[in-house]
Design a protein that fits this description.
mainly alpha; 4 helices
């Protein structure tokens, strides 16, 4: 019977520490997301113009809804495009 001391690896197994996701709005105390600032809202949109999900941005549910509403308002006023090939 082999023990854990007998197990050898070619390369030692690496343990990567995951970064803890945080909501940037709660951390910095932002309460209102301005729809008239398209440069800030581009951080939450991918190259095609789609909204990035919460699991990628780390935004809380409350602020994800506010970001989505702000992006929609910004698109409606033609500050941001609805669809783009290479937005960034």
């Amino acid at each position: 019977m082999s023990t854990s001391k007998d197990i050898r690896y070619l390369n030692p197994p690496t343990l990567e520490a995951k970064k803890k996701k945080y909501c940037r709005f709660q951390k910095s105390g932002i309460k209102y997301i301005d729809y008239k600032d398209p440069d800030f809202l581009l951080k939450f949109v991918n190259e095609q113009g789609k909204l990035l999900p919460r699991r990628l941005t780390g935004t809380s549910l409350k602020f994800q809804r506010k970001v989505a509403q702000a992006v929609k308002r910004s698109r409606h006023l033609a500050l941001m495009p609805y669809v783009a090939d290479l937005l960034k």
